Amino acid sequence: MTRPIDRPDPNRPPPPVDMDAVRARIRELAPRIEPIHGWCAPDAGAALYQLARLVAPTSTVVELGSWKGRSTAWLAAGLADRGDGRVVAVDTFAGSANEAGHAELLQGQGPDHLFREFEANMTGLGLAGRIEPWRMTTLEAARRWDRGVSIGLLHIDADHDYPGVRADFEFWSPFVVPGGLIVFDDVPTFVGPSRLVGELPRWYRYFGAMPNKWVVVKE
Ligand SMILES: C[S@@+](CC[C@H](N)C(=O)[O-])C[C@H]1O[C@@H](n2cnc3c(N)ncnc32)[C@H](O)[C@@H]1O
For the CA atoms of the chain, what is the radius of gyration? Predict the structure, then answer.
């Protein structure tokens, strides 16, 4: 029986990835994204880009904790080059309550400062169309999430205290599709996420590590 030409053959291997082109694109993106203030190291950003573009099984990406959008930009660029999808960027845009450094960085700024910078940065990179900012707490966002929408990649980088990161994992991991990825930030530098990744149920399999991030795949 012949197969309609618009229906892909499920047994055919995916087209090979042109890694030279991926590398060239990362080299082009890095100097544009790195000036955004944030904590995502260049190698980690490049890895987020590749995971969003090439590995995540669905093109819905959720980021918990975006600050001024450095890691958001890498993820959104990955989706833009994939040609599909969006990053839901969940942040109060008020800084983390338990990180004194955030309060210092925001001292003297109005309540909209961080959000405005985030928006300006994403617009400046031409990525705003791939990003939906949800300005609220991570748990409020989880309560509003449409459970019919499967997340292909979840980046957890908001509250780094153990109870906070654990709540983020518990509220959000049910929405991650089997085969989907969860990236934990600040492993091993922060105690909270580092403890949590050691406690995950075994159906969250180790996928890999990148500079200060730990990646698991949901079976
Ligand atoms: C470490 S920063 C994120 C850094 C960013 N991903 C980067 O790569 O530069 C953590 C962010 O999480 C946000 N945040 C902390 N706790 C939160 C919560 N419970 N709900 C929503 N956002 C939160 C803060 O406002 C802050 O912008």
Answer: 18
pLDDT digits (tens, 9 = 90+) for 33-81: 999 999 999 999 999 999 999 999 999 999 999 999 999 999 999 999 9
Write down the pTM of the prediction: 0.93
- Can you give the CATH number for the domain in which 123 is found? 3.40.50.150
**Residue with structure tokens 């180790």?**
206
Q: Hey, which of 92, 143, 169, 212 would you mutate to test ligand 1's pocket, going by the most ligand atoms within 8 Å of its Cβ?
A: 92
> Does any domain span residue 1?
no
> Does residue 92 have its Cβ closer than 6 Å to ligand 1?
yes
Q: Which of 219, 215, 148 is nearest to 178 (CA)?
A: 219
17 CA to centre of ligand 1 in angstroms: 33
